[in-house]
Amino acid sequence: MVSSFGRIIAVLLGLVLIFGGLIALYMWQTGMNWQFETVDYDFDSAPASIPDSVTLDINLPAGAIEVAFIDNASLLYDIHIETNRQTVNLYGDPTVSFSANEIDLTYEAGSVTVVLGSGTNYTLDIDCSASSVDVMAGANAHIGDVLISTDAGAIDFQMTSAASIYDNITIDLVADAGNIDVDVTLPSGIGGSFDATTDIGTVTVTPSGSWSQVWDNNHETSDYTTAALAVTITAETTVGAISADLA
Fold it and tell me: Where are the domains of the chain?
């Protein structure tokens, strides 16, 4: 059992992470560091041949990330990055590369919008220090495993019943200091499990359909262990609230 002193220390550490993240976010958004000019970059790829499976790997210490899918089987990716001149002067121009079936974007700070096509199965690996992450996997999404990790920032993950899943997948959402929102409606015939943990914060789960509580903050569909395919979701935060709508 965590002592009162330990909880106080954890809260203070969480506040430090959040405050530091907000400062970093504010600095690139407002153009502090004496340069206010916004700089935009666009990267896209629609190769003649697209692999059956692709990994999207993003490392963004500060900023915001949005990921969405569109109905375009020829599109591999369309990525827009907005940053400021000072960041570019310090770290150079951002780049996006594609090699060995991996889309790689690593940059220090910015607002990143990623649009993925409908012609392949995407694994998502997103790692941030002080960034918010918003993923919408809807009608045109073909998704595999998902890992989203942030030190200080919010995570919003949405998946509709129109998304396509071709294997058992895991969706891991981890925030050291930040809220996690999950809104998942499973495709027909897919089983599901959801488990949430937070050291300091609240967990609110709203299950419907075949979802039911197994214990504490763990919920499963009635066919989780028997369905041909299953989605296993975990949400974990040290300091922050977790909210999940499951259908």
Answer: 4-246
